[in-house]
Amino acid sequence: MDFNSLNMKQFVKDAGSALSRVVQLTEEKLGTSEKTELDAHFESLAGRSDVTKLWTEKIVGDTAAVLTPNPGNRVEDFLFEKIEKKRPSRLSNLEYLGLDMTEAGNAFGPGTTYGTALIKVGQYEQKLGAAEREFVNSAHVSFVQPLQKFLEGEMKTIVKERSLLESKRLDLDSCKNRVRKARSLLGTQSNAERDLRIAQSEFDRQAEITKLLLEGVQTSHTSHLRCLHEFVEAQVNYYANCHKIMQDLKNELSKDRPASPMVRVNSEEFDLSSTSIIDLGPAESNA
């Protein structure tokens, strides 16, 4: 028997199986055929898997949007990770702001008060940008990547095996129907019962494989919990670092801050930057 004949026979067999599954599914929807139900524990595991897939996809998408707000950059990162196996290196918006402030300060003159302030602020904005970029990379590696790997690996396998289980279930129920019909026809019952035994064995085997995969979702939850702790720790370090950078900048700027203009009212001087002059009532202002 040549290779082409084998392929044709396999094609005819697969087509026949697909047709019998369509017929079985149609009869189930019409209520004219019984359906093999899985046990309550299996259904509970399947439900938890569906919920896990749904919310993990949402969390990954939301976190990616927080870390990389620009949709175009997110698409670029996705493509680079698929092709180059790494994310592209780009400056953050804060770093661009810092660079422009520094250049503006030099253009206005580093010897001027405003130019000097712009240079200082620009330098600290670049520090903030670098801290943000470090946080984004850390959060991506410790949180987004593990969850994405789970969706593309373990969860994708679960979906595939559950789909295969449904096909085996349809084959089993189709065989059950043929056995019921064969009981009224002499000479065909033994073949139908043999097919039923094979279908039942394949269904039971696939159900066990799928159940083991579904039970592994709980282990994945434990792993994702560790990733969540690492994500929060990265946020804590990032915001603490930003706070320190801003405090240092505030202290630097306060050294060169120009004196506020003063106004004299009733032999008292008031700082125009404060609200004290505004708080004076009409009677006090006209005294």
Cα distance spanning the termini: 117 Å
Structural class designation: mainly alpha
- The proportion of residues forming helix, as a percent range, comes to over 70%
Q: What is the fourth-level CATH superfamily?
A: Arfaptin homology (AH) domain/BAR domain
Number of strands: 2
As a whole number of angstroms, the C-alpha radius of gyration is: 35 Å
Name given to the CATH architecture: Up-down Bundle
Order of helices and strands: HHHHHHEEH
Domain BAR: 27-262
Organism: Diaphorina citri (Asian citrus psyllid)
Pfam family, one: BAR
Protein name: Endophilin-B1 isoform X2
SSE inventory with pairings:
Elements: H1 3-30, H2 40-67, H3 71-83, H4 93-108, H5 113-182, H6 189-255, E1 262-265, E2 268-271, H7 282-285
Antiparallel strand pairs: 1-2
Helix pairs in contact: 1-5, 2-5, 2-6, 4-5, 5-6
Structural notes for this entry:
The protein has helices spanning 3-30, 40-67, 71-83, 93-108, 113-182, 189-255, 282-285; strands at 262-265, 268-271. The relative contact order is 0.09. It has 7 helices and 2 strands; from the N terminus they run ααααααββα. A hairpin with a 2-residue loop joins strand 1 (262-265) and strand 2. It has one domain (37-256): Up-down Bundle (Substrate Binding Domain Of Dnak, Chain:A, Domain 2), CATH 1.20.1270. It starts with a helix and ends with a helix. The longest helix has 70 residues, at 113-182. The chain has a two-stranded antiparallel sheet. With 287 residues, the chain is mainly alpha-helical. Residues 283-287 have low confidence and may be disordered. Helix 2 runs antiparallel to helix 5 (113-182), helix 2 (40-67) packs parallel to helix 6 (189-255) and helix 5 (113-182) packs antiparallel against helix 6 (189-255). 79% of the residues lie in helices and 3% in strands. Pfam families: BAR. This is Endophilin-B1 isoform X2.
